[in-house]
Write a sequence for this structure.
């Protein structure tokens, strides 16, 4: 029984040593970080013309660059004199 305990303890020590070497080399974290693709970001925006016709669009960005613009609603006609409260001055 004493020999079995010694062998098991030696195997645990060797495995712990190998795991420490693998983690210290940075292979796990470096690989995980470099293989992550940049995330896409999306936002919506209302585009309106001078006749108060507006459409919502979904804008997709990757690495800060626009990759896709697609309609998110149908065109809406608002009454004359309508003011877009979300419009930046």
């Amino acid at each position: 029984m004493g020999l079995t305990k010694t062998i098991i303890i030696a195997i645990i020590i060797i495995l712990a040593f190998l795991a420490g070497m693998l983690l210290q080399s940075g292979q796990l974290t470096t690989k995980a970080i470099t293989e992550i693709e940049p995330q896409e970001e999306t936002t919506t925006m209302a585009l309106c013309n001078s006749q108060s016709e507006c459409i919502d669009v979904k804008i997709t960005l990757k690495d800060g660059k626009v990759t896709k613009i697609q309609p998110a609603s149908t065109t809406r006609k608002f009454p004359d004199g309508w003011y877009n409260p979300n419009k930046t001055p």
